[in-house]
Design brief:
The structure holds two protein chains of two kinds. Chain A is mainly alpha-helical. Helices cover 67% and strands 0% of the residues of chain A. Chain A has a single domain, classed as Orthogonal Bundle (MetI-like fold), CATH 1.10.3720. Chain B is an alpha+beta fold. Chain B folds into two domains: 185 residues, D-Maltodextrin-Binding Protein, domain 2 (3-Layer(aba) Sandwich), CATH 3.40.190; 193 residues, 3-Layer(aba) Sandwich (D-Maltodextrin-Binding Protein, domain 2), CATH 3.40.190. A six-stranded mixed sheet of chain B has the order 2-1-3-8-4-9. In chain B, helix 2 links the parallel strand 1 and strand 2. Classes of the chains: A mainly alpha, B alpha+beta. Chains A and B meet through helix 1 of A and helix 1, helix 3, helix 4, helix 17 and helix 18 of B. Chain B: Keywords: Cell membrane, Lipoprotein, Membrane, Palmitate, Signal. Chain B: This is Extracellular solute-binding protein. Chain B: Pfam families: SBP_bac_1 (PF01547).
C-alpha cells in the first residue's frame, strides 16, 4: 500500500519538516527481552550457585545422609556442633591459619613487588620465577614440600649437618600447621605480587620525588607515600587472602594426610566438611551445618576487613 | 517493564524442580526375578582394573555376549582414588551401573539404602559354587540376605628387610609371626639402631585388633567391642613401641602409601603388601629387593586377614536376568581361575585353591608368595567389619593416636573410639 510522504499542513500549525523513512524499523522492545538475554547466566548461577546454596541451607536442618533422605531435625546439627571436639579443632586451626597467613600475604608480596618493580635488565626472569609457584599444581607442590620436610628429607638433612638435629615438621601438630602455612604463603606470593605491581605502577612518581626532596629516606617514603597510595589494594589482598586462608584444604590435606595430622589435630573446617559429608555413609546434613558456619565466618571476615578500611578512610 | 512475581516464581520453580529430582531414590526400578531370558544391555563397573587388564575384560565381555546373543555389556572402570565417592554420586543420582565391583564395606551402605540385590533370593542356586566364608562376607549384620557375589580374595604377605634384621642381631630367616615376637624384635631393632630404624610405619588398624584376638563387634552386630582386655593390651604394647621408636615417629599420620615409601627407602624394617609389590621393589629399590624377606601376616589367632572383592547387582537394574547372569559369569570358577593366572589374586570358588597353580612350587619368589598366601587363605578371616565406615576408621585412628602420644590411657582411648563408632553406627541406621 502506498503512503504519502508529503506532510499535511494546517494554517494553525507550523509546517513539519519532511521525515526521512528509516532504512529499517526498530521494533518495540518486548518486556521479556532483558530476561531472555540474562537467561543463560541466570540458569548457570541458579544451577551452580543458588541451588547448591539453598540445598545446603535446607540440608543443614535435616539428618540427611548420602543415600538416605533426611528428616527435619531443627537445630540439632548446630547443637551437635557445639559439643563436637573436632569442630572446635577445625575452627581453631582455620582461625590460626588466617592469623598466620594473612599478615604474611599482605606484607611479603608487597616487598617482593618493590624488589622487582624497577625495569632493569633480567627482571622479567625474576618476576616469572616468583610467579611460577602460582601456576604449579598444588598436589605437585604439596608432594615436593613433603619430600623436603620429611624426617629423611633435605631440610632435616641440612639441620642435622649443622648440628640442630631432626625436626618433626610432619609429625608435630603445630609444626605441621606452620609448614602448611609456609606452603600457602610461598605459593601465594607471586599472585599477590602481581596485584601489588599493578597498584605500584599507579603511584605518582612526583610524590616520591617531592618526599625525597624533603629529605625522606627510603623507609619513610615507603611508609608515608607508598603505603597510603596502595592501601585499598592492601585491603583487597587482606580480604582475598583471609577468605582463602579460612577455607584452606589442599595444603593441610597433603602435608598432614587426609586424617588431618596426629589425632586429627590439624584438621581444618573444610577438611571436616569433606570427611564428614562424603562417601557412602556421609552425613550430608551435619556437613551442611559446618559449611554454613564456614560461610558465616567468611562473610564476617570480609565485613571486618571492609569496615576497617572504611574507618581508615573516615 | 518489571517482571511479575508470578513469572519469577514460575521461573524459579522451573529451575528448582528438575534439580530436586537429583536427590537419592529413584523409581524403585527393577525386578528381583532373574529367571527371564538373558538379553539386552547392561553396564558393568570395575574398580581401577582397565589400565592393567583391559584385554582380559574385553575378552570376558566378548565371550559373554557370544554365549548370550542379544546381550551387550558396557564396561566402565573407575580410578581407585575416590571410588566410594563415585559410587555415592551414582547411587544418589540414580545412575548406579547394573553390575558393580564392590568390597563388603562399600556394599553395606548400598544394601541398607535398598540399592543392592539380595542374591539369596535371586541367585541362591549359585551359592554352593563359592567358599562358604566368601559367600558370607557380603552379608550385613542386622540384615538378612547376601548382597554381592564373592569375587577374588587376597591376603597380603608381610615383607621385611633381611639386612636390617641382620644389623640388629636378629635372625633374618626367622621373622616374627606373632605380635609378641614382633614387639620383642621391634624393640631390639630400635635399641640397636639408636632409634634410627623403626620396625613398623603404621599404627594398629581394626584388622590388627582382630588378629591380636580382640572382639571387634558384639554377637548381634549392633555395637563395637574392641575395647576389651585384648584390645587394650595391644594398644598398650604399641604405645611402648612408639615410646621406644620401634614405631616410626611419623606413623601417627601415615598412610599406606607413605608407609610403603618408608619401607622402600629402608627407614622401616617391615611392611604389609601384596605380591604385586615385588616387581615394584625390583625396579624402584634393587638394593632392598636383594634383601627382601617374605613372611605371613602377624597374627595371634592363627588366622590371617582376608580381603574380599565382590560383584554387586544393582537392585534397580532394568535387566535383572542379564545382570545376575553376568555377575555370576565374571565370578564363576572358570573365570576367577583365569583371572588369578593374570594377577596375584585368589579365587573365592570352592575347590579352586586346590589347583596345582596354588600348590606346586617352581622355585620362583612369585610362586612361593602365591602358594604361601593360598595356604593361609584356607583358614583366613575377614577381620574388617562390613559396617566399619571411613568415618569410623578416622574415629579409631584419632583415639589410637592420642593414646600413643600419651594424651590418654589406652583403655580411655578405646572406650572413646567404641563410643564414637557406636554413635556413627546408630546414625547409619
Amino acid at each position: 500500500m502506498a503512503t504519502s510522504t508529503v506532510p499535511r499542513t494546517r494554517s494553525s500549525r507550523p509546517a513539519r519538516r519532511p521525515q526521512r523513512r528509516p532504512a529499517f524499523r526498530i521494533r518495540r522492545q518486548l518486556p521479556t527481552s532483558p530476561w531472555l538475554f540474562a537467561a543463560p547466566g541466570l540458569v548457570v548461577t541458579g544451577a551452580f550457585i543458588l541451588y547448591p546454596f539453598v540445598s545446603t541451607v535446607i540440608n543443614s536442618f535435616t539428618d540427611r545422609r548420602t543415600l538416605i533422605p533426611g528428616r527435619f531435625v531443627g537445630l540439632a546439627n548446630f547443637r551437635e556442633l557445639l559439643h563436637d571436639d573436632m569442630f572446635w579443632i577445625g575452627l581453631r586451626n582455620s582461625a590460626l591459619y588466617v592469623a598466620g597467613v594473612v599478615p604474611a600475604l599482605v606484607l611479603l608480596p608487597l616487598l617482593l613487588a618493590l624488589l622487582v618493580q624497577k625495569n632493569i635488565p633480567g627482571i622479567t626472569f625474576f618476576r616469572s620465577a616468583f610467579y611460577t609457584p602460582v601456576v604449579a599444581s598444588i598436589v605437585v607442590v604439596g608432594l615436593i614440600w613433603v619430600w623436603l620436610l620429611d624426617e629423611r628429607g633435605l631440610v632435616n638433612s641440612l639441620l642435622e649437618t649443622v648440628g640442630v638435629g631432626k625436626v618433626g615438621f610432619l609429625s608435630d601438630q603445630w609444626l605441621l600447621l606452620l609448614s602448611a602455612m609456609t606452603v600457602t604463603v610461598w605459593k601465594g606470593l607471586g599472585y599477590y605480587m602481581i596485584i601489588y605491581l599493578a597498584a605500584l605502577a599507579n603511584v605518582p612518581r612526583e610524590l616520591h620525588e617531592a618526599a625525597a626532596v624533603d629529605g625522606a629516606g627510603a623507609v619513610r617514603r615507603f611508609l608515608t607515600v607508598t603505603v597510603p597510595a596502595i592501601r585499598s589494594t592492601m585491603v583487597l589482598v587482606a580480604a582475598l587472602s583471609s577468605v582463602s586462608a579460612f577455607k584452606v584444604f589442599s595444603e593441610v590435606y597433603l602435608l598432614a594426610s587426609p586424617n588431618g595430622g596426629p589425632a586429627g589435630e590439624d584438621t581444618t573446617l573444610v577438611m571436616l566438611v569433606q570427611r564428614t559429608g562424603t562417601g557412602l555413609t556421609g552425613r550430608v546434613g551435619y556437613a551442611s551445618a559446618i559449611s554454613l558456619v564456614v560461610f558465616a565466618v567468611t562473610v564476617v571476615l570480609m565485613l571486618l576487613v571492609l569496615r576497617a578500611d572504611r574507618r581508615e578512610d573516615s | 517493564m518489571p517482571i511479575s512475581r508470578r513469572a519469577l516464581a514460575a521461573a524459579v520453580t522451573a529451575l528448582v524442580l528438575p534439580l530436586s529430582a537429583c536427590g537419592s531414590g529413584g523409581d524403585g526400578g527393577g525386578s528381583t526375578n532373574a529367571s527371564g531370558k538373558v538379553e539386552g544391555d547392561i553396564t558393568f563397573q570395575t574398580w581401577n582394573l582397565r589400565a592393567n587388564f583391559k584385554d582380559y575384560f574385553d575378552g570376558l565381555i566378548a565371550d559373554f555376549e557370544k554365549k548370550y546373543p542379544g546381550t551387550h555389556v558396557k564396561w566402565v572402570d573407575q580410578p581407585a582414588e575416590g571410588y566410594a565417592d563415585k559410587l555415592s554420586a551414582d547411587a544418589a543420582g540414580g545412575t548406579l551401573p547394573d553390575v558393580v565391583n564392590v568390597s563388603p564395606d562399600l556394599v553395606a551402605p548400598l544394601a541398607k539404602a535398598g540399592l543392592a540385590m539380595d542374591l539369596d533370593k535371586t541367585a541362591a542356586k549359585y551359592r554352593s559354587e563359592y567358599l562358604p566364608g566368601a559367600w558370607a562376607s557380603h552379608q550385613i549384620p542386622g540384615m538378612s540376605g547376601t548382597y554381592a557375589f564373592p569375587w577374588y580374595l587376597n591376603t597380603g604377605p608381610m615383607f621385611y628387610n633381611k639386612a636390617l634384621f641382620k644389623q640388629a642381631g636378629l635372625d633374618p630367616e626367622k621373622p616374627p609371626s606373632t605380635y609378641d615376637e614382633l614387639f620383642a624384635d621391634a624393640l631390639r631393632m630400635a635399641q640397636k639402631s639408636g632409634g634410627k630404624v623403626a620396625t613398623l610405619a603404621n599404627i594398629p588398624t581394626i584388622e590388627d585388633f582382630g588378629r591380636y584376638g580382640a572382639s571387634l563387634m558384639n554377637k548381634e552386630g549392633t555395637g563395637f567391642a574392641f575395647n576389651d582386655a585384648k584390645g587394650v593390651e595391644l594398644l598398650t604394647k604399641y604405645k611402648q613401641l612408639y615410646d621406644n621408636k620401634g614405631l616410626d615417629t611419623q606413623a601417627l599420620n601415615a598412610t599406606p602409601e607413605s608407609a610403603g615409601k618408608k619401607f622402600l627407602t629402608q627407614a622401616v624394617a617391615m611392611n604389609p603388601g601384596s605380591a604385586l609389590d615385588l616387581d615394584h621393589f625390583k625396579t624402584q629399590a634393587p638394593s632392598l629387593y636383594k634383601n627382601i624377606g617374605i613372611t605371613d601376616q602377624i597374627t595371634n589367632t592363627g588366622h590371617v586377614n582376608m580381603y574380599v572383592m565382590g560383584m554387586m547387582v544393582n537392585s534397580r537394574t532394568r535387566n535383572t536376568p542379564t545382570a545376575v547372569a553376568f555377575a555370576h559369569y565374571v565370578t564363576d570358577a572358570e573365570h576367577q581361575m583365569s583371572f588369578a593366572k593374570k594377577v596375584a589374586i585368589f579365587p573365592s570358588t570352592a575347590g579352586s585353591l586346590d589347583d596345582p597353580y596354588f600348590t606346586k612350587e617352581d622355585g620362583t619368589d612369585e610362586t612361593r608368595v602365591r602358594i604361601a598366601a593360598a595356604k593361609s587363605l584356607k583358614n583366613a578371616v575377614n577381620y574388617t567389619p562390613a559396617l566399619f565406615s571411613e568415618q569410623m576408621k578416622t574415629a579409631l585412628r584419632n583415639e589410637v593416636d592420642k593414646a600413643l602420644q600419651g594424651k590418654q590411657s589406652p583403655q580411655a582411648a578405646l572406650d572413646n573410639a567404641v563410643k564414637a563408632c557406636d554413635q556413627l553406627l546408630k546414625q547409619q541406621g
